[in-house]
Amino acid sequence: MTTNLLANPDWTKGTSTPFTDPAHGNVVRGNMRVPNGWYFEFVEGLHPRLPEQDANAPWLAPELTFRSANGAVHGQTATEALPLSELDLYLAPDAPVVYHAFKAFGIQMWELGTRDVRPAGDYKFSIELFNDVYFSRNQQKVPPDDPRAMEWRISLGTDTDEAIAWMPSNDGFRKWRTVERTFIHPGGQLDVSLEVRARWGVDTVGAFLRRPSLVALNAPPTPPVPPTPPPGGGVATDKLALLTTLVTALDVRIGLVEAVVNGLKADRDAILTELLRIRNLPAD
Question: What pLDDT sits at residue 166?
Fold first, then answer.
């Protein structure tokens, strides 16, 4: 069984409150809640520009929160409730909390990642992403017709800027998919992140995230933990305990057999009594 190496993979280990943005003058962002054990970075302003993007539409900081069925505190993380009609869409029995990055009409470019010292080896990072991008038309959620409306990639701190291609939403919008990357880590600090960008200000631009995982692919299997012997135990004591258990079980079975035999004897005696009674009846 592989072990998930992430410190907060279910989003229930609390958040960095308040989130102080070191990349933008240490501004405190009250509407940006980042899970403990993770970092969050984003782009603001007019640069960089992407093809077919409005030259005057700036990148915006998304809002960040956690969603659950009831809006309760899960572990150490306060959540906000999802609409009842959307619970089955976003949640799962093993994923009762999802992370939500969103902004109405929000052109966004951000990354959510983790940094930690790891030994050299082969690793796989994966996370489930729901690209919640749509226009609101006549009370209907209409997806955009260009898959570049939301793109993503998994990056390492050692990547050059365009080493890993962005993946557009070719399989459609408003659906879950697993985004993953397998890589070789030379040892030392491992910086791995999910990057997401949405180049146009669609009515609703959001991403739900769940089930993040980092596993070592060539790690030796964890040996099973041997059972703890009873106090004062040893081979002789273990055998004695086993034999005592077997004798007790046999006594129970013998008791059951004796009860059946006694019941059969009683039935036999009743039948013999009835036969004698019939024989002693006067003839007609």
Answer: 95
Backbone phi, then psi, for 31, in 5-degree steps? -100, 20
Number of H helices, E strands in the chain: 2, 18
Which H or E run includes 65? strand 63-68
Q: Say if CB 156 and CB 183 are below 8 A apart.
A: yes
Neighbours of 113 (CB within 10 A): 19
Q: 54-77 b/e with 16+ CB inside 10 Å = b?
A: eeeeebbbbbbbbbbbeeeebeeb
Please count the CA atoms within 13 angstroms of the CA of 229 that sit on its side-chain side: 10
109: amino acid identity, one letter = M
Give residue for tokens 């739900």. 208
Mapped onto helix, strand or coil, the DSSP state of residue 84 is helix
Residue 263's Cβ-count burial label (10 Å; 0-12, 13-18, 19+) is exposed
Alpha carbon 233 to chain centroid, angstroms: 41
pLDDT of residue 30: 72
Q: Which two tokens stand for residue 28?
A: 């405190």
Could you give the CA distance from residue 118 to residue 235 in angstroms, rounded to a whole number? 41
Rounded distance between C-alpha atoms, residue 119 and residue 245, angstroms: 48
pLDDT tens per residue, range 32-59: 999 999 999 999 999 999 999 999 999 9
CATH topology of domain 15-216: Jelly Rolls (2.60.120)
Instruction: Write phi, then psi, for 91 (nearest 5 degrees).
Output: -105, 165
Joined tokens for residue 251: 């006594």
Distance CA 18, CA 26 (A): 11
Could you give the CA distance from residue 94 to residue 234 in angstroms, rounded to a whole number? 41
pTM comes to: 0.75
| Spatial separation of the C-alpha atoms in residues 236 and 228, rounded to whole Å | 15
Rounded-to-integer distance, Cα 193 and Cα 212, Å:
10
Report, in this order, helix, strand and coil percent for the chain, each rounded to 5: 20, 40, 40
- Show the tokens assigned to 276: 């004698």
